[in-house]
Amino acid sequence: MRADRVFAYGATAGLLGDLLLGDPRRGHPVAAFGRAAGAVERVLWRDHRGRGALHTVVCAGGAVALGATAARAVRTSTAASVALTAAATWAVVGGTSLAREARAVGRALEAGDVEGARARLPHLCGRDPQALDADGIARAVVESVAENTSDAVVGALVWGAVGGVPGLLGFRAVNTLDAMVGHRSPRYLRYGWASARLDDVAGWPGARLTAVLAAVAGDDPRGAVRAWRADAARHPSPNAGPVEASFAGALGVRLGGTLSYAGRVEHRPVLNGGEGRAVRVADIDRAVRLSRRVGWLALGVSAAAGLLMKGRTS
Question: CB-side exposure of 192: number of CA atoms within 13 Å?
Answer without folding.
Answer: 21
